[in-house]
Amino acid sequence: MHYTTQMDAARKGIITAAMEMVADEEMMEPEKLRELVAGGKVVIPANKNHGALKPCGIGKNLRTKINVNLGVSKDCCHIEAELEKAQMAVELKADAIMDLSCYGRTEDFRRRLIEVSPAAIGTVPVYDAVGFYEKELRQITVDEFFGVVEKHAADGVDFMTIHAGVNRDTAARFKKNPRLTNIVSRGGSLLFAWMEMNNRENPFFEHYDRLLDICRQHDVTISLGDACRPGSIKDATDAAQIQELIILGELTKQAWARDVQVMIEGPGHMALNEIVPNMLLEKKLCHDAPFYVLGPVVTDIAPGYDHITSAIGGAIAAANGADFLCYVTPAEHLRLPTLEDMREGIMATRIAAHAADIAKNVPGAVHWDHEMSAARCNLDWPRMFSLALDPEKARCYRAESIPEKEETCTMCGKMCAIRHMNKVLAGEYL
Question: Do residues 3 and 38 touch, judged by C-beta distance below 8 A?
């Protein structure tokens, strides 16, 4: 039977090869996964033109996924370095990579990335439009915006961030309710500026059906961008953020009517006590569509440590409904991240995602922890290293400080509680 998108197939009762792979990875019955995809509660970003893709599912009852951002900028336009970062992201088990390139003609980098990456690839076409056409923002036409979307879809991009919810009504709400940090979304600020300079509606809102036609043709998942996400904890859960979220919920239903897969992007900077209510709001207003969050970053005072502020918020968010975490590195707010920054950001985000999976009772999640605990109880160091989230770092720390008693570590040495208990329970004298 013919189908156009994963959602279309699911609604026709078809379990696709991608669904089979995801179901196996998630230890879920394929039929159950098909039902979730059909209902929009799970997405499988899988552009028909991405040949190297290993499909992954994002959404309800699945393992929390993580995304890595990279890409060239005017100040750091080094394609080979960004491809090296992409390779590291794959090696460190990132589920998706977003190419946020915002300078020059980026087709070469994007196409090379799609050609080699088994991870899902995302982009923000409005970034590319500014560099691709080499024109002032206000001079870019509606057709030119959509021309870039079509190009990305044809190249094999699996999901695109489209800030369709920052329409004229949202913009008016924002202007009536001043913020400490205004609009901090790069794509959102570009579209807001375009609307203001041209006195026109957001082209992706006004011509949303045109966007859906492109996404349906190539099976591109729309990641409905949060232009009004808070850039400070003071601006969290304000009128503009909620106005946009309501519109995103309406756009979600329009996309589903065309069998186009959708996920929703969310905050941003947010105090701890606001995270759980925001997860509930998104799931209610956006009909249980998968939720993709940046952080949330839970305090604004830690430049250099925002991989930690983000991991704290991400763990709480994912434990309470978020399905997809965008990594944050120590370089956030400061500069383009290095390879080491990326490693720190990926590991922090993977810890947050796994901690949330334990809380959500995701199949197999806590078993990993139980295996590690058993290895620790047996003082089985090789086994501990093999189970570690980052085996390389664990082995390095161990090698840097050798204990007198080989089975212990230099924190406790022969006074190791586990060593004592093992010996005493075995009837041995200390």
Answer: no
Long-range pairs, 131-135, Cβ under 8 A, ≥24: 131/101, 131/102, 131/103, 131/104, 131/105, 131/106, 132/105, 132/106
Instruction: State the span(s) of the chain assigned CATH 3.20.20.540.
Output: 6-359
E strand or H helix at 125: helix 125-133
Q: Cα-flanking dihedrals φ and ψ of residue 362, to 5°?
A: -65, 130
3-state secondary structure (DSSP) of residue 42:
strand
DSSP label at 191? H
Query: Which class for 385: exposed (0-12), middle (13-18), buried (19 or more C-beta within 10 A)?
Result: middle
Q: How far is CA 276 from CA 237, 270, 316, in A?
A: 12, 10, 7
DSSP class of residue 2 equals -
Q: Which residues contact 167 (CB under 8 A, 6 or more apart)?
A: 201, 202, 205, 206, 247
Q: Is 233 helix (H, G, I), strand (E, B) or coil?
A: helix
Query: How far is the CA of 256 from the CAs of 30, 41, 110, 261, 316, in angstroms?
Result: 21, 11, 28, 7, 28
Q: Which CATH number fits domain 6-359: 3.40.50.300, 3.20.20.540, 3.30.70.100, 3.40.50.720?
A: 3.20.20.540
- Residue 396 CB burial class (10 angstroms; 0-12, 13-18, ≥19): exposed
Joined tokens for residue 62? 């699945």
| Distance, CA of 296 to CA of 135 (rounded, Å) | 34
Token digits of residue 162? 């489209």
Q: Which DSSP helix (H) or strand (E) runs through 176?
A: helix 168-176
Contact 160, 136 (CB under 8 A): no
How many Cα atoms are found within 13 Å in the side-chain-facing hemisphere of 59?
Answer: 31
Cα 29 to Cα 52: distance, rounded to the nearest angstrom: 25
Q: What is the mean pLDDT of each run of 10 residues along the chain (430 residues)?
A: 95 98 97 98 98 98 97 76 94 96 79 96 93 89 97 98 98 97 97 98 98 98 98 98 98 98 97 98 98 97 98 98 98 94 97 98 96 97 97 95 88 90 86
Global confidence as pTM: 0.96
For residue 120, list its beta bridge partners: 96
Strands 120-123 and 96-99: parallel
